[in-house]
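Batch manifest, entry 17 of 40.
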Amino acid sequence: MTDRKVTWKDIKELFSDKIWAMETDFATRTWRSIVHFIRVVRKTFDTFAEHRMGFQCVALSYFVTLAIVPLVAFIFFVSKGLHIADKLEVLLTTLLPNNLDLVKIAIEKADNILKVAHSGPVGVVSALMFLWTVIWLMFQTERVFNNVWGIRKIPRKTYKRFSFYIGLLFLIPFLVIIFCYGIAAYSNAVSLIGIDAAYLTRFVSWLLFYAVVVFTLSAAFKYIPACLVRYKHALVAAVFSGAIFCLFQYIYLETQVFVSRLNAVYGVIAAIPLFLIWLNFSFQIIMYGAQLTYALQDEAELKK
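Output type: structure tokens
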């Protein structure tokens, strides 16, 4: 059967609600791809607004703000056990030169938590309560990802979720340490090149960062929701959202928009509102990627 020609009426229906009932069985392959693309984009943005993900991203930003210091404390607790805490502190200040105030504040407060933990049984209990904020952040993150897929009752057993979070909590310090040492080793290796490779170094660094972001986001989109997610859809969403995420990081880190004005008003504590702004926009990008994963998989199932 021959392909049906696309009319002006069909083009107008692309931007109306009639797109959901549009028949594409006998259309050209190009036209089917266009309809599929627009459906995915509309479904991504519509469901993001419908699920009120913007408010949930704000909530996650505050949860991270509460959990960041206990998490840093736990990372330094592990690194001290490995006798590399001093080196890790130097690496963090080297890798985040534009956020030195925030890094110093986080390290100082994390050290206070460790001192409290060594003060006695009461201190240990207090430190464990701080550590619970990290576990609670994981619970809330899973809840938001499940909202993307419309999951209200999580089928996973609570004890399984809790044991998984504990395992992930012990894995995070080693991932951070490996990541920091990997970047340091890479920078030292590039410095040994006998030519001026500053621009090449920056390009390769951002390229490697993009690869890490895509891998991390694809794993998050695939495994955090309590449902079956096809990895190919998670990977496609991670490729797009990862590019936007890296672009945002570049703009934030390289241009430091509003930093001078905020520093003039708030001084040292300007790092806190900047951190909240960065978290909010970062979570917005990540959750749009999660919604894109949902839209891609939902559209693929409708085509079957």
